[in-house]
Amino acid sequence: MEKTALVLSVIFTILTFIGAGYVLYNRGQANAGYASIPLVFALVSIAFYRNRK
């Protein structure tokens, strides 16, 4: 279970950076949710990983 949480946190962190790059590439015209929603899931996954460890 810990390894799954770690893998998910890495994936969601990568998606956060991709989403932020997409928003910046579109000069802020794209929805900021492309970056913030994966960030929330990454934080939840990291917190779950740290609590289980």
Q: How many individual β-strands?
A: 0
Question: How much helicity do the residues have?
Answer: over 70%
Largest sheet: none
Alpha-beta content class:
mainly alpha
What's the Cα radius of gyration?
Answer: 13 Å
- Beta-strand percent range: under 5%
The averaged pLDDT comes out at 95
By DSSP (H or I, 4+ residues per run), the number of helices equals 2
Distance between the termini: 10 Å
Taken in chain order, the helices and strands follow as HH
Describe the SSE topology.
Blueprint: H1 2-25, H2 33-52
What attributes does this structure have?
elongated, 2 helices, mainly alpha, 53 residues
Question: Your description of this structure?
Answer:
The chain has two helices and no strands. The protein has 53 residues and is mostly helical. The chain has one domain (2-52). The model has no long low-confidence stretch (mean pLDDT 95).
In short:
The chain is an all-alpha fold. The chain contains two helices and no strands. The protein is elongated.
